[in-house]
Amino acid sequence: MRIPKVAIGSTLIGLLLLTGCGGSGPNNGQADAPAEKASSPVTIRVLQYSTDITDADFQSLLAEPVKKKYPHITLELVRLAKGTTLQDLVATGEVPDLIYTGSRQIENFKNLGIPADLNELIKKNKYDLSALNTDVVNIIRQRGEKGELYAMPIFLNFSALYYNKDIFDKFGVSYPTDGMTWEDAIALGKKVARTENGVTYKPLNPNAFVNFGAPYQVNYVNPDNHTAVINNEAVKKALTLYKQVADLPGNKDSVTNARSRFQKEQDLAMQPDFAEILGELAESGKTGNPINWDVVSYPSLADAPGLGYETIAFMLMLSSSSKHPDDAFAAIQAITSAENQLKLTRGGKVPALKDPQLLESFGADVPGLKGKNLKGIFKSKPSPSPKRSKYEDVARPVLNAYVQKVIKDEIDINSALRLAEEEANSKIKAQNNQ
């Protein structure tokens, strides 16, 4: 996911800070956390890592509800400056109190000893964990060897197929529909893969392979013995179909710059993507480059119907080095309260609370989403996330490199998977020997 540029002054070792204050907040459905020094102001720094959040969303969805519930707590957004790493923060003792990131990043933070186990704070504050999305909580808990819970979900990601209505209208082709398979999407894409007046219209972006194959719930590294398991039928089947999408006419250069093609150049007909693009599209009318778009459910694999990208949560992780764990947990409680979860749902975020009535208000406060097929988004479900090896992130870049070679016709699929597995095992072995 992209990390946006921020025009804010740097401090300390190159961290970028934004102070949170103001506004409207929640009626916390959980027991109130006993903040450490309720009469003394405290600043809780929140590191944004690998997952986008705008300054406005940070203020509205995180900082303001905390400030209203706990006036002495101020949230401060921290963005890593260019060239600064997590290792730098650990080495200098500058890890912020909370980390805002995605659930795929837990292993990276664990390897650096950053996250604190939240179980004791949950028990201490009588936090009702059962109110949260059960699948997401289980996924986060899987990342702990002994039942540790290293983060709290605050809202969830989703996958959907966004499409440019003007391109379909131009060629008299019917719009995409909910419930399509990838084969359906490929067939539809062929009908709009044309060149007219010097413009080559790209039909369908496959997006990243790790997302494409998620419904098969594959591991690229065995979580029990930590050996690569890339060369198997599930990965082969997914890659074969993935290449069919990439081989559609005009598609070769839309894999790496698809969002720009879809939103700016507007020569890409269909873009499967995450939740974050929904807000960008809703605001497109304000940028001077509006796009006539709509959305349907994410295309499914024929033998894994109704499943989209892997379940991913946007979450808050407590640093084990925080000097304000109780205040930081109080902030988490305010953010995950029923009132604030309704607010973010109405703003176009999928809530972490599992109350199904919340989704009835999805996007209600966003004018740019009026009239859009928002219910279609939820007709596909996130793919379950299997238990992962700590070396999964070693194997994925290796596989991705070979996937690109397959796309460029530099190597056949069977050879690519065999070589990727061998190379991944070599890299895992090298890490074990360090």
Automatic annotation (TrEMBL):
Gene3D superfamilies assigned to the protein according to its UniProt record, in alphabetical order: Periplasmic binding protein-like II
UniProt keyword list: Cell membrane, Lipoprotein, Membrane, Palmitate, Signal
InterPro entries linked to this entry: Bact_solute-bd_prot1, SBP
Cell cycle in keyword set: no
Protein name: Extracellular solute-binding protein
Lineage: Bacteria, Bacillati, Bacillota, Bacilli, Bacillales
Keyword Signal attached: yes
